[in-house]
Amino acid sequence: MNIPNNVKELILKRKEKFVNDKNLQLIGKPGYSSPDEHILPDALTSLVLHKNVLLKGPTGAGKTKLAESLSAEVGQPMHSINCSVDLDAEALLGFKTLVEKEGNTTIQFVEGPVIQAMKNGHLLYIDEINMAKPETLPILNGVLDYRRTITNPFTGEVIKAAEGFTVIAAINEGYVGTVPLNEALKNRFIVIDVPYIQGSILEGVLKSQSSLSDGDLIKSFVQLSEDLVTQVRNGQIPEEAASVRALIDTCDLAVFMPPMRAIQRGIIDKVEDEREKAAIRNIAETIFG
């Protein structure tokens, strides 16, 4: 990975800051690979310059793995939020609860991932940020811009983020259930396009991250992935059918069952439309028989 020396120095400083952090179990695992050799170093550079990073790409392209690899590279714990239409302020910031202590009942505020990350100077990963309702996200405006500040509506506390706090977010544009990301919000990020992993890079990922060791079978699964990606780009099958995550699961299953049955369980049965299922099955049968 080609990283400028001045960026390496900033990475080392971050690692030193968190070496004794009590939340080291929150550090992500490395392993992201990409056909674009600049993605990881560019994302790292943005991160150590305290820029928020928005990872944009199709489902299963490895955005979460990239976020985990960034956490691992800088040795910085990362708190995560999975967005949905039900996401509210409590899921982001925390909630009040009753606590019994020494025979007395008191109200205690349990801090959510945003406040935990801010107070500790950790990373905050917001997955599928464009799945959240548009009226929910403005809560984060002050968190994401130069102020790095939020007033907790549940306690009145004004929280200023500790040094090192940075946000990584991910979006799947055009995916069912998503909404266009507000331009003012998008403007608070450095945007990095994350493409599908293919060819020899995908082969390496399958060898290192799945249980399958049969080299010929792995090459066949790489071919399957390439054919599925082509069909996704042609609009014939949904993005999740070409997910690297689903492919790794399928390779694991193929250690213990015939490949076609593994593909059925790991990929085909995740798709709802019968025509799309048939298209995936036909592609798989041309490769695996």
TrEMBL record:
Q: Where is the AAA+ ATPase domain?
A: 49-195
Looking at the Swiss-Prot or TrEMBL record, what is one Pfam family this protein matches? Answer: AAA_5
InterPro entries for this protein: AAA+_ATPase (IPR003593), ATPase_dyneun-rel_AAA (IPR011704), CbbQ/NirQ/NorQ/GpvN (IPR050764), ClpA/B (IPR001270), P-loop_NTPase (IPR027417)
Q: Which GO terms describe its molecular function?
A: ATP binding; ATP hydrolysis activity
Belongs to which family?
A: Belongs to the CbbQ/NirQ/NorQ/GpvN family.
Q: What is this protein called?
A: MoxR family ATPase
Q: Which organism is it from?
A: Mangrovibacillus cuniculi
Instruction: Kindly list the organism's lineage.
Output: Bacteria, Bacillati, Bacillota, Bacilli, Bacillales
